[in-house]
Amino acid sequence: MILCLLLIIFIFDFTEAANKESNLEEFILSYNENCSYKYSGAVLVARGDKVLLNKAFGYANYENNILNNTNTIFPIASITKSFTAIVIMHLQERDLLSVDDYINKYIEGNNWGDKVTIHHLLSHTSGLPKDGLFLGQKNVSLENNIEYINKYSLRFNPGTKYSYSNSGYQILAAIIEKVSGESYNNYLKKYIFAPLKMSNSKGGTDSSYEKKQAIGYQILTGEPYKLSIYNFSCITGSGNIYSNLQDLFNYDRSISNYNILSKDSIDKIFFPHWGDWDNGYGYGWNIAKKYNNVRYSHSGNIGGGGYNSLMIRYPETDYVLIFLTNNADLTALNVVSESMEAIIFDKEYVLPQKAKNVKVANSILKKYAGNYKIVENVIITIDYRDGKLSTVADDGKEYELIPLNNTQFYYENREYIKCEFQIDEQKNEIILKITNATRKFQGVKIIK
Question: What is the pLDDT of residues 87-126, one digit of tens each?
């Protein structure tokens, strides 16, 4: 009886995983085939040790027709902060520092070191301004960066507010070097990357490209435009790591299995030191709840360099989603990540499709035109002009509504936004339903 029950559970889990794999792949293929804003980069979705999706799209080098693949290397930008937090806790476990230590124990030359602790830096509650020294293509030594940051004044009393600060994480990198006697990048390599077999990961020190690295672009609906990256020395500790899908998956598994840090240290990292479980920040991770599950995440952006990244962890269900892109535009990353989160939790999402020269009668289109009340003080206007419907989206731009049939439309170049008109003859009402990736809105036409 017990064996039979275990077999049933195994079959159910196997079938569920297979369905998730199928739905994830169907979505990303449909998205890139039918959407104007393409996903260029790599994506991995896994539950526990089981990889459900591991694919790459677009080109690492559009000029030379080199495709992205699942081993392609990308700058991960601010996901670096999670590694900095790991190293700080690693040093604390070695009794080389404490998160309660004040900064003046390690960093001199400022007038706030006796007020700011390592804890404040890790949780973005120090009061320090956002960025440190930036010199574009020129090298910025960590020493010079700290001298520059030391001249700052605090924007608020430490611990009283939250304000995202790259400069705070650059100070953490300097503290790591001070107490360990090794460079930040070498410490990562020796104690994190090597033990976790993250052989494609490193801390960047300049503006050069790695051998298997994707080039950054601005990719909208036309030809990709190549962008240049700045010297990564200025973001040591806050955003200078390069990595790929497999390495970051190894990283996720090490966190879940306590391979690098003890459970106590991991629990400290993933605790809302600012805010709460619905909207907070731990040490190097955003904390929230989605679909009634605790959600840890961090995004990354190389400003002007053509790279965006996102890593999401759901500890209760052991899901991880990793997105690495070489596109400065966030449209595809936002839609794909949001939709894949819906897929793994069996929630509704839009499967993009293109219309095939559908013609809707003008009399029907004119009937749909008008103002629709979504909620109090929120009105969506559908305009009719020259045999077409259009509307202004929340980005302030006007979009034509492209018909799929007589009742369903999608926004021009936004194929993941669908709208549907429903006529209720009994109530003499026209209802507008809009689905943006996974978010739904509904309103009734205002009859004058």
Answer: 999 999 999 999 999 999 999 999 999 999 999 999 999 9
Residue 418: strand pairing partners: 410, 435
Which of 229, 220, 287 lies closest to 77, judged by CA?
229
Q: Is 4 inside a domain boundary?
A: no
Show the tokens assigned to 41.
């980069």
Rg of the chain, C-alpha, whole Å: 25
d(CA 61, CA 226): 9
Question: How distant, in Å, are the alpha carbons of 89, 142, 251, 427 from that of 261?
Answer: 8, 26, 12, 62
Domain membership of residue 329 as a residue range: 74-344
List, for residues 40-60, the tens digit of each pLDDT value: 999 999 999 999 999 999 999
* Within a domain: 217: yes
Residue of 81, 131, 80, 66 lying closest to 326 (CA atoms): 66
What whole-number percentage of the chain has pLDDT above 70?
A: 97
CB atoms within 10 A of CB 187: 21
Separation CA 382–CA 44 (nearest Å): 39
In-domain check, residue 149: yes
344, 371, 400 — which closes off a domain?
A: 344
Three-state DSSP state, 34: helix
Q: Are 279 and 245 in the same domain?
A: yes
> How far are the Cα atoms of 214, 244, 326 from residue 211, in angstroms, in the given order?
9, 13, 15
Q: Evaluate if residue 154 carries a pLDDT over 80.
A: yes
Instruction: Provide the pLDDT confidence category of residue 14 given band limits of 50, 70 and 90.
Output: low
Tokens, residue 197: 């077999």
Looking at the structure of the chain, the number of domains it has is 2
184-196 pLDDT, tens per residue?
Answer: 999 999 999 999 9
Give the model's pLDDT for residue 356: 79
In terms of domains, do 181 and 155 share one?
A: yes
CATH number of the domain encompassing residue 396:
2.40.128
Domain end among 344, 370, 400:
344
Can you point out the beta strands (E) in 189-306? 202-203, 217-218, 225-226, 241-243, 274-275, 279-281, 286-290, 293-302
Q: Are residues 225 and 115 in the same domain?
A: yes
* Residue of 121, 438, 172 whose CA lies nearest to 282: 121
The Cα–Cα gap between 174 and 150 comes to 12
Q: How far apart are CA 260 and CA 87, in angstroms?
A: 9
Indicate whether 214 and 300 sit together in one domain: yes
What is the pTM assigned to this prediction?
A: 0.93
Q: Are residues 270 and 322 in the same domain?
A: yes
pLDDT at residue number 177: 98
